[in-house]
Amino acid sequence: MKERIDDAKRRMEGATKNLSNEFSALRTGRASTTLLDRISVNAYGAMTPLTQLAKIHAPEARLITVQPFDKTMMTDIERAIMESDLGLNPSNDGTTIRLPLPQLTEERRKELVKVAHRMAEESRVAVRNVRRDVLNEMKRAEKDGEVSKNDLGRAQDEVQKLTDAEVKAVDEMLARKEAEIMEV
């Protein structure tokens, strides 16, 4: 039982960690280098993460700079940024690509909050699916005589507590992200 509970905890924490990564790529009003983490560039015939091809900084609240290690990659990096779904318009001065972040409109902020809610709900569903899978495994084990009814009840309570804690963590992450997006 213990190993099943540990596995459930690991899988549930993975779902919230994944949500954290998704939230970091969700654009807010201020510049963050994590916005570019998902961008891959066709470099030397292979898709390579932008973070491996350039130094990325956020020197100001509304500006991200990208300095490629290899200057011949400038146009490929610019193209990858423009083709991404971030809606950024890069400007190139020969050595540095500047990405000014426009002020978000109220309508766009509300759209981003909806996206964040959808991401959070997907994470909650993933946590609940883990709970369901683990509880089914435990019930099978009890039916096969591997575990007593009392042990099953205690384990089910522990899995429910894990689930509640992870769902609460998701809700807290969503509240922080929502406040960050709506901040002007």
Description of the molecule:
57% of the residues lie in helices and 15% in strands. It is built from 4 helices and 6 strands, in the order αββββαββαα. The protein has helices at residues 2-24, 74-83, 106-143, 149-182; strands spanning 40-43, 46-49, 54-60, 63-68, 91-92, 97-100. The strands form 2 sheets. It has a 4-stranded antiparallel sheet with strand order 3-4-6-5, with helices on one face. The chain has a two-stranded antiparallel sheet with strand order 1-2. The longest helix is centred in the last third of the chain and has 38 residues, at 106-143. The mean pLDDT is 89.
List keywords for this structure.
elongated; 184 residues; Gyrase A, domain 2; 4 helices
Inertia-based shape: elongated
Instruction: Provide mean pLDDT, rounded.
Output: 89
CATH architecture descriptor of the largest domain: Orthogonal Bundle
Low-confidence parts: none
For CATH, the homologous superfamily of the largest domain is named as: Ribosome-recycling factor
Give me the CATH fold name of the largest domain: Topoisomerase I, Chain A, domain 4
Terminus-to-terminus distance: 49 Å
In terms of DSSP E residues, the strand content is 5-15%
Radius of gyration: 22 Å
N-to-C series of helices and strands:
HEEEEHEEHH
List how many beta strands DSSP finds.
6
Strand order of the largest sheet: 3-4-6-5
Estimate nothing, just give the exact number of structural domains.
2
Helix percentage:
55-70%
Structural class based on helices, strands and sheet pairing: alpha+beta
